[in-house]
Write the structure tokens for this entry.
Amino acid sequence: MIFIAEIGMNYEGNMDFAYEMIKQAKLSGADIAKFQFGWRNKPGEINFIDLKSALQLKDWCDYWEIELLASIITEESLELAHDVGLNRYKIASRTVIDNPALCEKIISEGKETLISLGMWEKDDFPFGNPEGTNIKYLFCCSKYPNYPVDLIPMPKIFTPNTYYGYSDHLHGIEGCLLAISRGAQLIEKHFTLNKASQTIRDHTLSALPSEFKQLTELGGTMARLNNIISNSKYI
């Protein structure tokens, strides 16, 4: 079971705050701390991450023994990911629609690639069946925030050959736990230290460290139980 703390832009362009969020994500049980490379990233913008900043994030993640991951939004941000040496990539829902050629280029590198499908409206998968490939599709609803009715389309069963995991925009952790109960092997949940901040819209739908810790503890236990039951010879 993998838990991603989606820091995104919730660090509000403050690298000192980013360090504390990486630390708290690790202490909350996250396996991965995720940022966004290439979104609102011009000099002076809130998410300007150049090579120096990216390497600093990588160093801090290495120190806290948590993996650094990033959504790759542009060709330039893919090069930044190369320079930093990311183990795997994330493709955001919007990129699937806006820049499928970039998605194909990312996938072609052969590294594990997590792809959110919050804006994908077709029945088939955008980059083929994931079976036997480096692709892992994530179920997602691209509204900020989600409400319970938005999760009606959630798959009844998650499998590596269909939807591998779930990227959450719901208040609280209930949606994540529901996905785990249905077999999701990866959860991406937005992470914050201050839900009341109005600087970035994502704060309100994010998990505080106490909530994220509850998610990783309960969710990890649920996943182990689900795996045992699913693999039982008596089924």
